[in-house]
Specification:
The structure is a homodimer of 325-residue chains. With 325 residues, the first copy, chain A, is of the alpha/beta class. Chain A has a five-stranded mixed sheet. Chain A has a five-stranded mixed sheet with strand order 10-9-8-11-12, with helices on both faces. Chain A has a two-stranded antiparallel ribbon with strand order 5-6. In chain A, a hairpin with a 3-residue loop joins β8 and β9. In chain A, α1 crosses α2, α3 packs across α10 and α8 crosses α9. The longest helix of chain A is centred in the last third of the chain and has 25 residues. Chain A is globular, with a radius of gyration of 20 Å. Chains A and B meet through α8 of A and α8 of B.
Amino acid sequence: MSEIFVGIDLGGTNVKIGCFDSQLNLTCKTAAPTEADMGPETVVDRIGRTTEELLADNGLSAEAIGAIGIGAPGPAKLDEGVIIASPNMPSFKNVPLRKMVSDRFGKPTVLENDANAACWGEYVLGAGKDVEDMVFFTLGTGIGGGVIVKGKLVHGFADNAAELGHIIIYPDGRECGCGQRGCVEAYASADSTAKRAAEAVQAGAQSSLKEVLHEKGQITCRDVYEHLAAGDELAKEITEQTAKALALVCINVLHTTEPKRIVFAGGMIAAGDVLLERIKHYFSEQIWSLKKEAVEIAFATLGEDAGIIGAAALAKHAKDEGKFK
Amino acid sequence: MSEIFVGIDLGGTNVKIGCFDSQLNLTCKTAAPTEADMGPETVVDRIGRTTEELLADNGLSAEAIGAIGIGAPGPAKLDEGVIIASPNMPSFKNVPLRKMVSDRFGKPTVLENDANAACWGEYVLGAGKDVEDMVFFTLGTGIGGGVIVKGKLVHGFADNAAELGHIIIYPDGRECGCGQRGCVEAYASADSTAKRAAEAVQAGAQSSLKEVLHEKGQITCRDVYEHLAAGDELAKEITEQTAKALALVCINVLHTTEPKRIVFAGGMIAAGDVLLERIKHYFSEQIWSLKKEAVEIAFATLGEDAGIIGAAALAKHAKDEGKFK
């Protein structure tokens, strides 16, 4: 019976579960609503049942599980496996999630921050698989991050490292949900990009996005990129600002840990090469010459599976390194 | 015969040399002009003779040297022990400095970037000795940096990590010597602080620094802090801007590697508590609440010896870890 590694990507809305063989090939996967308001015990029990069903449907046994990895929103005490709190799961306060999952399955379990887990997935099997030093940004509602130095995730002294969305790029700039001003998240997340477009339209900018706002009552990031592709000038300007903001934060992380590759993930990379090219343009324009050529900026390759892949890979890594003994 | 560790702090003007016992207590130290224009061979030979004289004057034998550490300006290939180039030592191009020093003494030698060596000194014996995760800034002509993650210096993929002076805090801002715009170095190094004061005086600002500029033809950072202490309003404004710039870069490194302590060193910390207090003020004002309390901002404690202490400590560390076998 060959060993299985389970990767769990716990989000505020859905929980994704994937089963992997010992080579980290995806065997099967599923998703279920998180329903975090039912409380942590119910959530963990659903994860247990859903995983068992998934395994049974695929002719696998829970006995074969070698280890389980969970990527979850934080802040968390990773060494203790405890979720301190989570804005999207208010019922999760000081929840010993690692122990609960481990007890539910009777299997060794690791807990990691969700963005770090996705970062690790891309590092092991995706856009970063051939480098040792990588920085990862996920561009969604907010901006999450991960930092890998010489093959290890950087956790920081209190497990809050790599909050890269809150690097300040424009002091005294736009308000961020975190309470700071001028964070890159306030400019270049998918939500902030869409919001800046809506603000410009409301302020009277000429744009084909005006009709979108009028008809739907809002503008999404996808709208911005569709109208960019159709040649809208405002969409172009908004994209330029997003790209410049992302280039600035690339320069800043580069001067800190000097990654060989900087990887962007999340819904916004659906915008495609036009966005990547503009990030590279502003990076090249603003960075000093010494570092211009050597650093690579790339888009993630694993899509939505990065979280489950990374969680399973962390579980396998911990087992391989003897962390569970 | 107890073991000696030699720490060498190679600068564009002077080379400092210190001898330490196996507990890293400073036994004796000296300094000599670098005279880099004489070429690397001559520089290394002078380092050799100066060290031998220092040891002899203190009744010690070069035979007792356990290992040698060198902190030198870069960029460098640290694994290979090669200085690629150095703006202040134009004759140093692709110089295998580690091998040259090791051959001169017949002793194992490590090469480190000068700011990293000073960072390591503060980490091991100075302001960071009780933490695992630290970030270090040295405020002098420019701004150098060091990043320590879980007890290890971060080197980056090409040994150019921790160029923290070139983190961009004000996009499209002041020109920096590196070719970028808006680097923290262009605002908050000792030189930039003095330069901003001189520019303000030249632009007509009322200040007691006006006489300094008139009499000496320039304003130094020390002048700014002396006039600050005497109550000059412009000196106060310049100091506020320096403190805000440093607070911003603290926030940005905090969100990247999450150090427990951020340590400032270099000539400018002679300004004392007034500067430290203002950095902490702006940090506290701009950082999100989650991280406000937990991070410590402090001044270095080893003064000018940090470089030789760090270099010697790195030599001992490498020996202890079996790196020379």
